[in-house]
């Protein structure tokens, strides 16, 4: 009778411990992270074609191109492993490098507006559309990753599954964050006066 009661108690405890949920959400977060990396790689692969097309415009600002090339080199040099998901410092370093590349590409696209021949170039126009689509895909992939990590972190912090998290060392995972929260909290200055 005692063994039967122990078995039922253990089975009930194990069904509520969340172990399988941790496994499921950990795998989902890894899959979502892989999709984020896939889209970042897609963006990095577009950069050489964009740079080559822009270089054809003789008067284009070399400083802008150099910054894009350097940001791409930095972003692609960071080795990302599944352990990156559990290492907040490595995750932040990766995120910062991708942020730099995104900013450099944004500056490049803004400066292109001053070059009518480049804006009219069909190859550049196609690359620009691909880049915009990739940026949208990155946003979607990041959102999916954020949601999956949120579910995992809630499980890791909620009772009674937090006991399972402590027992098996399932720490909360880092999430994507905004690089400069103070800067984005200030509304942009819009000035329609022409000089």
Please render the helix and strand layout as text.
Elements: H1 2-15, H2 19-55, H3 62-77, H4 88-112, H5 116-120, H6 122-157, H7 161-168, H8 181-184
Helix pairs in contact: 2-3, 2-6, 3-4
Describe this entry's structure for a reader.
It is a single chain. The chain is elongated. The chain has one domain: Up-down Bundle (de novo design (two linked rop proteins)), CATH 1.20.1440.20. The chain is mostly helical and 195 residues long. Mean pLDDT is 82; it is low at 190-195. The protein contains eight helices and no strands. 74% of the residues lie in helices and 0% in strands.
Structural descriptors:
elongated, de novo design (two linked rop proteins), single chain, disordered C terminus, mainly alpha, 195 residues
């Amino acid at each position: 009778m005692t063994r039967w009661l122990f078995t039922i108690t253990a089975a009930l405890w194990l069904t509520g411990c969340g172990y399988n949920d941790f496994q499921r959400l950990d795998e989902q977060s890894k899959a979502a992270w892989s999709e984020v990396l896939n889209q970042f790689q897609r963006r990095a692969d577009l950069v050489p074609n964009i740079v080559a097309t822009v270089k054809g415009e003789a008067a284009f600002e070399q400083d802008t191109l150099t910054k894009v090339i350097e940001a791409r080199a930095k972003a692609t040099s960071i080795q990302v492993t599944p352990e990156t998901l559990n290492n907040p410092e490595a995750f932040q370093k990766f995120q910062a490098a991708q942020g730099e590349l995104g900013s450099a590409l944004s500056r490049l696209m803004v400066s292109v507006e001053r070059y009518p021949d480049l804006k009219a170039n069909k190859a550049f126009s196609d690359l620009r559309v691909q880049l915009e689509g990739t940026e949208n895909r990155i946003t979607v992939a990041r959102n999916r990753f954020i949601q999956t990590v949120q579910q995992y972190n809630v499980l890791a912090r909620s009772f009674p599954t937090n006991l399972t998290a402590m027992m098996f060392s399932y720490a909360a995972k880092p999430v994507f964050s905004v690089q400069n929260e103070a800067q984005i909290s200030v509304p942009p200055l819009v000035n329609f006066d022409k000089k």
